[in-house]
Structure formats: structure tokens, C-alpha cells
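Saturday, quiet lab. Running sequence design on the C-alpha cells for the scaffold JK sent over.
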């Protein structure tokens, strides 16, 4: 059974920074494409960023481009999302997702709130 556990969500001020972590286990993490997705209340889940198995290629969607950085540590089975310059559109539950972002296994998520 794939296990993904996110952490690091918090209340952050507008313009602030936050780093999310995802601990992966019970699958070959170093061989899988990984994603961060988010879902805000009343909105559909959306892709934030993706990273290839070896970490060599990353992709970003929408407003995450230029502000967020996805990375991974295959030795530690960890996925990260560094988020800078937080804005009012960033509050959501953030999930890490294995393989295809719409249908892959995902963790329960971690809550990010942006407020002054």
C-alpha cells in the first residue's frame, strides 16, 4: 500500500514563504514521477508542480511558475515544495501525488493558509 504523508502546512503572511514536505514509502519512490496538487474550498483540484524521477526536469502550472520550487531527495524518499511570495490565491490543501496528478495515489494533504 502506497503511503504519502504531507507536512509543513501553516498560516503564513502574504509575501511570506513556506516549505512543504512529503514522506513517501512502500513503493519505489526514486523511479516515479511526483507532483504537488492543491485544492481550495469550492474549487477543483489543480496541478501545482511536477518533477521527474531523477529530479532533472520540473514543470509548473499557473501562478506557481516563478514562485514555487519542487524538489526531491530520493535517498530520503522525500518530496518538497518551496513556496515564496505567498498570495491570496495560494490557500488550499496541498497533496503530493504519485505518477498521474489527476488519478495517482495521494496523501491526506497539509493545509496552507495565507492571512495577515
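Result came back. Writing it out in full:
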Amino acid at each position: 500500500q502506497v503511503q504519502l504523508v504531507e507536512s509543513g502546512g501553516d498560516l503564513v503572511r502574504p509575501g511570506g514563504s513556506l516549505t512543504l514536505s512529503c514522506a513517501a514509502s512502500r513503493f519505489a519512490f526514486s523511479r516515479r514521477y511526483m507532483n504537488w496538487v492543491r485544492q481550495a474550498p469550492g474549487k477543483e483540484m489543480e496541478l501545482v508542480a511536477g518533477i521527474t524521477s531523477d529530479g532533472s526536469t520540473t514543470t509548473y502550472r499557473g501562478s506557481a511558475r516563478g514562485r514555487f520550487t519542487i524538489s526531491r531527495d530520493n535517498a530520503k524518499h522525500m518530496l518538497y515544495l518551496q513556496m515564496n511570495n505567498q498570495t491570496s490565491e495560494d490557500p488550499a490543501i496541498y497533496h503530493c501525488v504519485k505518477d498521474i496528478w489527476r488519478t495517482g495515489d495521494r496523501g491526506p494533504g497539509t493545509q496552507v493558509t495565507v492571512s495577515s
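Notes for JK: Strands lie at 3-7, 11-12, 18-25, 34-39, 46-51, 58-60, 68-73, 78-83, 92-98, 110-114. The CA atoms of residues 97 and 106 lie 4 Å apart. Ask whether to fix the surface positions before the next round.
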